[in-house]
């Protein structure tokens, strides 16, 4: 019996996202993966994997055509780190799972690789900057940590235009790798990315997604395990303002035994048409005995007109696990917390800042890169200041 058949047997049914658009029930593992663009029809927005996304704004990235090659990629890091261009198929942590990822695979002008040597212990992070220069472009990045190494890689996405990117991450056996990806393009930029991570035997991955800017940002992060004892922690912070769409999709595929995954994403929204989408899929296959997993998403809606969609999904094919669970919550600003702080003489604006900062702090404290956390605090302060101005204007 397939996963989809199992879900139907337990009471689930096919469903529809609009008149004339029935969507059949489909397990996450049964979706198409391919390097061939032709295997992915241009979506119309009714498909399960696209129904929350403003597909009309992504027409340029759906086209199976070369870009203007207006993406600049550069990197620097401590001695011993290898930065080079490689063949596109030299590392295959995962196949494209949607049309845009397949287009980016086909048309990225080169594959940019960052390799951490075996047994290296880097005290300073490796920095990679991916900058859009104003048109439609593609990027393909590989990050690979050697056996028993310890390293941090920060990938900073900036600039303008339309960007489709693939990031492949290979965490060597016994190594510990932290990857921080920052999405902060200009106000009209569009960025769609697929991150694929392969976690080796007894290896640890901490993947942190920070989304702060861009008109449309959609990051799909997929994790699989190459051996037992792997540990993946997936963290995310996002703050969508008026007219911005921030979407994060995760798929953790537990196939090896005795592996762990922990997912924690938090987002804030402020302003008319601010939109956040979080989809979390975890699959525990029949062979993945001893799995331990949990996923949590929380959203804080700061003003009227903002909307957050949060959909956690969990498929379990074996009962021989350590534990599995998921949760999500979306709510408005806590007036009781605000009143408590104001009653102790703290001005309203400062009280709001403290509450929102506290909301994010448990994730920010785990990023582990001082310059990133300082930048994140500064940007959140700027966004909160704009939110306060917006709220004051509405009251007037």
TrEMBL record:
Q: For this chain's UniProt record, which GO biological process terms are given?
A: iron-sulfur cluster assembly
Q: Which InterPro entries match?
A: Fe-S_cluster_assembly_SufBD, SUF_FeS_clus_asmbl_SufBD_core, SUF_FeS_clus_asmbl_SufBD_sf, SUF_FeS_clus_asmbl_SufD
Signal sequence residues: none
Cite a single Pfam family from the UniProt record.
Answer: SUFBD_core
SUPFAM superfamilies the record matches: Stabilizer of iron transporter SufD
- Region (Disordered), start-end ranges: 1-32
- Similarity comment: family membership: Belongs to the iron-sulfur cluster assembly SufBD family.
Put simply, this protein is called: FeS assembly protein SufD
Identify the taxonomic lineage of the organism of origin: Bacteria, Bacillati, Actinomycetota, Actinomycetes, Propionibacteriales
């Amino acid at each position: 019996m397939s996963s989809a058949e199992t879900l139907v047997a337990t009471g689930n049914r096919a469903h529809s996202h609009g008149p004339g658009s029935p969507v059949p029930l489909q397990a996450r593992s049964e979706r198409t993966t391919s390097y061939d663009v032709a295997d992915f029809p241009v979506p119309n927005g009714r498909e399960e994997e696209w129904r929350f996304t403003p597909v009309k704004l992504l027409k340029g990235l759906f086209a199976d055509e070369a870009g203007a090659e207006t993406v600049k990629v550069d990197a620097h890091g401590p001695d011993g780190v290898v930065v080079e261009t490689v063949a596109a198929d030299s590392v295959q942590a995962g196949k494209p799972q949607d049309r845009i990822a397949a287009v980016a695979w086909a048309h990225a002008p080169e594959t940019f690789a960052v390799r951490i040597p075996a047994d290296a212990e880097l005290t300073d992070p490796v920095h990679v900057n991916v900058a859009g220069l104003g048109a439609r472009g593609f990027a393909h990045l590989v990050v690979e940590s050697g056996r028993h190494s310890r390293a941090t890689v920060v990938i900073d996405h900036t600039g303008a235009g339309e960007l489709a990117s693939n990031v492949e991450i290979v965490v060597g056996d016994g190594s510990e790798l932290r990857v921080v990806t920052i999405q902060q393009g200009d106000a009209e930029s569009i960025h769609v990315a697929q991150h694929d991570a392969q976690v080796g035997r007894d290896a640890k991955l901490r993947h942190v997604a920070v989304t702060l800017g861009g008109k449309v940002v959609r990051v799909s992060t997929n994790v699989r395990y190459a051996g037992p004892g792997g540990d993946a922690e997936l963290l995310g912070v996002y703050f969508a303002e008026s007219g911005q769409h921030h979407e994060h999709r995760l798929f953790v595929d537990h196939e090896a035994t005795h592996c762990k995954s922990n997912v924690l994403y938090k987002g804030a929204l402020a302003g008319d048409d601010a939109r956040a989408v979080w989809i979390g899929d975890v699959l525990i296959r029949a062979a993945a005995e001893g799995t331990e997993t949990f996923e949590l998403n929380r959203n804080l809606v700061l003003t009227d007109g903002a909307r957050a969609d949060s959909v956690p999904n969990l498929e379990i094919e074996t009962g021989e696990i350590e534990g599995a669970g998921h949760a999500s919550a979306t709510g408005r600003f806590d007036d009781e917390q605000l009143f408590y702080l104001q009653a102790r003489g703290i001005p309203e604006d400062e009280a709001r800042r403290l509450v929102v900062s506290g909301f994010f702090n448990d994730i920010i404290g785990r990023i582990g890169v001082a310059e990133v956390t300082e930048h994140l605090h500064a940007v959140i302060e700027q966004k909160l200041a704009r939110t306060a101005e917006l709220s004051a204007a509405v009251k007037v």
